[in-house]
């Protein structure tokens, strides 16, 4: 891809007050607010808008949070099932309808190759379709650029198919035989369940992800947490912001009306569970002896949420049905630390251990030594640089439909306060 000459005269470049990189819900939310304020800008998207929702979700994908939490700017969920969980196509319809509700200055199929300051201090956005200059740049490209696969995966016998979450659309993608799903974040447990429901032979390597109740004492757990003000807690109000930011999401499901996922029940029904994968050598797969600990930790989180809800109900004097205490229906008798995949009939491994962002093109002073964004509610110390759409950018809902619009409003508000507000020609409707 071309790298353009930053010594070219500034007047030869396309200059705008704001350039937004990424046309997912975060970037488009920022555009909505800028359009409303009449601030000229452009949204650059390397694929098509909402590409990830359209092309990087499996067929049975659905929201884990209820539809009422879909609150994009000026476009809250208005369907007839606020307590339901939209399926993939319904999510796409929702975000597309949001995009059609205003006239975003969107340029699709444009890849940003470099963002840097020129000698005069202007922010330059280099793309495969020309060079842009901006007073402010909003990075809304998300954190799902690079699927994480452990380096030792290269040692797996080539007869065993390896896939990542991003490669999976449905059970037909998995060859005959047993599939070892690795990881128990929201994707891992849902893909395990997807294969299990389809009657496929599946086993699961259980990581340290926490889990959550779905329905508890007459209401969805997310309704209780919303009423308790949990979703209003900012990252600065948490005991350890760095630890909060690094936390894995609690697993549960919105499938078929929503339910919780208790891995012990799957194990009791015969589904093999192992601890965290630590290495592979040909057909030999090694696991840490941490299965019981990981299950216990997940249950501790589950019970902790129930206890929070119990305390809230008691404090507020709410009349709610009482439920029996949680019981562990299964525990591992031994910790299996090594298996032979061939002997176990494992013909595929599905890696569900997350993604990493790729900011190699972002050559500004806004990343820490590990390449992670440094900001305060999306606003960087490097003047004119902002982030949107990251998990815990400000609250739990920052990377979700629930609060991404609020974060976009905050960031664009900072920009408006800094801009010389002239030359507004962005239409808002």
TrEMBL record:
GO molecular-function terms, A-Z: flavin adenine dinucleotide binding; monooxygenase activity
Q: InterPro entries from the entry?
A: Auxin_biosynth/cation_transpt (IPR050982), CHP04046_FMN-dependent (IPR024000), FAD/NAD-bd_sf (IPR036188)
| UniProt keyword Cell inner membrane, yes or no | no
Question: Pfam families from the entry?
Answer: Pyr_redox_3 (PF13738)
Q: Which Gene3D superfamilies match?
A: FAD/NAD(P)-binding domain
Q: Which UniProt keywords apply?
A: Oxidoreductase
Question: NCBIfam families, per this entry?
Answer: MSMEG_0569_nitr (TIGR04046)
What is the protein's given name?
Putative flavoprotein involved in K+ transport
Classification of source organism? Bacteria, Pseudomonadati, Pseudomonadota, Alphaproteobacteria, Rhodobacterales
């Amino acid at each position: 891809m071309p790298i353009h000459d930053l010594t070219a005269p500034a007047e030869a470049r396309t200059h705008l007050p704001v350039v937004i990189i990424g046309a997912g819900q975060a970037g488009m939310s920022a555009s909505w607010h800028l359009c409303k304020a009449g601030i000229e800008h452009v949204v650059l998207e390397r694929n098509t808008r909402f590409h990830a929702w359209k092309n990087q979700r499996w067929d049975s994908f659905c929201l884990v949070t209820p539809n009422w939490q879909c609150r994009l700017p000026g476009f809250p969920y208005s369907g007839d099932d606020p307590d339901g969980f939209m399926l993939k196509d319904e999510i796409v319809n929702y975000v597309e309808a949001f995009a059609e509700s205003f006239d975003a200055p969107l340029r699709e199929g444009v890849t940003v190759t470099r963002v840097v300051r020129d000698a005069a201090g202007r922010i330059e956005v280099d793309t495969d379709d020309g060079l842009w200059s901006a007073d402010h740049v909003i990075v809304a490209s998300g954190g799902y650029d690079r699927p994480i696969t452990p380096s030792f995966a290269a040692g797996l016998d080539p007869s065993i198919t390896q896939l990542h979450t991003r490669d999976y659309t449905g059970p037909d993608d998995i060859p005959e035989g047993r599939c070892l799903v690795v990881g128990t974040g929201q994707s891992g447990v849902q893909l395990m369940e997807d294969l299990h429901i389809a009657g496929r032979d599946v086993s699961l390597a259980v990581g340290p992800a926490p889990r959550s109740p779905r329905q508890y004492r007459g209401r969805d757990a997310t309704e209780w947490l919303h009423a308790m003000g949990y979703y209003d807690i900012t990252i600065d109000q948490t005991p350890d912001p760095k630890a909060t930011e690094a936390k894995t999401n609690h697993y549960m499901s919105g499938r078929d009306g929503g339910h919780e996922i208790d891995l012990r029940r799957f194990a009791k029904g015969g589904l093999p569970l192992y601890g965290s994968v630590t290495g592979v050598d040909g057909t030999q797969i090694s696991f840490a002896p941490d299965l019981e600990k990981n299950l216990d930790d997940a249950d501790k989180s589950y019970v902790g949420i129930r206890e929070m809800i119990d305390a809230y109900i008691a404090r507020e004097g709410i009349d709610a049905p009482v439920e029996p205490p949680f019981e562990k229906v299964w525990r591992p008798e031994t910790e299996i630390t090594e298996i032979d995949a061939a002997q176990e009939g494992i013909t595929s491994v599905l890696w569900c251990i997350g993604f990493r962002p790729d900011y190699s093109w972002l050559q500004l002073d806004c990343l820490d030594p590990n390449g992670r964004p440094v900001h305060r509610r999306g606003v960087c110390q490097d003047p004119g640089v902002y982030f949107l759409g990251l998990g815990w950018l400000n609250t739990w809902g920052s990377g979700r439909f629930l609060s991404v619009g609020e974060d976009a409003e905050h960031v664009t508000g900072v920009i408006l306060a800094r801009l010389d507000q002239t030359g507004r020609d962005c239409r808002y409707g």
